[in-house]
Hints:
- The protein is of the alpha/beta class.
- About 30% of the residues lie in helices and about 20% in strands.
- It contains 8 helices and 11 strands.
- The strands form 2 sheets. It has a 9-stranded parallel beta sheet with strand order 8-7-4-3-2-1-11-10-9. A two-stranded antiparallel sheet has the order 5-6.
- Helix 5 (about 120-130) runs parallel beside helix 6 and helix 7 (about 205-220) packs across helix 8 (about 235-249).
- It is globular, with a radius of gyration of 17 Å.
Amino acid sequence: MGKIRTGIGGWTFEPWRGTFYPDDLKQKDELKYAASKLTSLEINGTYYSTFKPNSWMKWRDETPDDFVFAVKASRFCTNRRVLSENNDSLEKFLSQGLEELGPKLGPINWQFMATKKFDPADFEGFLKLLPNEQKGVRLRHAMEVRSPTFACQQFYDLCAQYGVAIVYAVDDEAPEWPRIDQPTADFTYARLMCSREDEPTGMTSEELDGVVAQTRQWAERGDVFAYFIAGAKVRNPAAAMALIGKLEG
Length: 249
């Protein structure tokens, strides 16, 4: 049975002050507080820019020993016409200091735009570029695809061949995105973009029970990383904490 880790995307968001973070909490202490309430966080600032090694070391040192970060890969690596071309963006992203997280480094989420369609040869060329480790630290990769063309056995087989996960992404505002639940790696990565502001915990208790059942089923095949992202963002911390409470109950 794998471990289920639950969290949110990032930890800096002004509307969380007073709703998730106490009013008197200093901004520099937000990561420590978030890590005390959640079991994982997806670092998504890396989608837009790189960070210095000192930042990665700081994040490592401000979180509990068993905490794990997922990392969203740079858009400059995935928003390309030809994915399989070796490029400086990939090296720049991977060499910025991720390995400083050590055992706290979880999966890397490679997110592709909805306009990127499945090209088997090009996509396999991209997978071949992804290393299994960075300076001795294991790298795990997850593919978040948004074009329906990826909902095919050839894509599933390709991901399984290279041991990469396919992100299970749910967004009620984008029903055309494929919801792919395929065991192509030894872990599961889920992005739940369906929280609602009219629910204090983002979802009803019954809906959260459904997420509990699903994550436990995934855990039978390995570790699970489940994040409440987007949707009613102000409710995502409450949704993640409610899910943790139900999983521990």
